[in-house]
Structure prediction request, 240 residues.
Amino acid sequence: MKIDILTLFPEMFAPLEHSIVGKAKEKGLLDIQYHNFRENAEKARHVDDEPYGGGQGMLLRAQPIFDTIEKINAKQPRVILLDPAGRTFDQAYAEELAQEEELIFICGHYEGYDERIKTLVTDEISLGDFVLTGGELAAMTIVDATVRLIPDVIGKEASHQDDSFSSGLLEYPQYTRPYEYRGMTVPDVLMSGHHENIRIWRLEQSLRKTLERRPDLLESYQFSKEEEKIFEKIKNETQS
Ligand SMILES: C[S@@+](CC[C@H](N)C(=O)[O-])C[C@H]1O[C@@H](n2cnc3c(N)ncnc32)[C@H](O)[C@@H]1O
Prediction:
């Protein structure tokens, strides 16, 4: 995957040099280029200006963003504008972006953008209902969540298929050595070596956790016959 990031602060992206995203770059599965659009700004490198009609703060000017995207000369990129008013990012959105060959991110700053920038954009994405100082942290989060879904980036594909949200449910609890730590032990079923019982226990735990913490996820969840049965049992237990 090729990713181009338009930002006034390329140095903020150092975290993407490490861990799984950094390794994906080393393996040649990912190419990330940073474009400081100040370098393409006419008018004494000014990237911002006052809003027409008055008001607080400064807005990013259209010209440096248009010129930078034209220079990137991408074939059919998804062009993503980070914006608190955009569609909220989630795992399904990450899975959608992971199918793309080329992504361009436009990181905002200051009070916002000249609205005409939006004519360049295919997606407006928000990280959630809060306001960041700039789009950089949002872009990094989206890149991280997307890149780990690209085939071969994470060793075993199964390791993200069980992740929270990938299956539509929250992930079940997990344990590692030692068996006993400060008086807390591991559930017997996980020590049994009985793969089918472990699978059913994990499924039940996932359903239980999702019902407790995120019942909204279950509203659109497509239950299998097996899951329906387990879910009925959990609901009966919680009612009694
Ligand atoms: C200070 S914010 C501007 C907020 C803007 N005045 C508003 O009320 O929508 C500067 C930039 O940070 C980024 N940003 C802030 N919050 C964000 C969020 N929740 N999701 C994605 N990007 C965000 C956007 O690129 C935004 O243009």
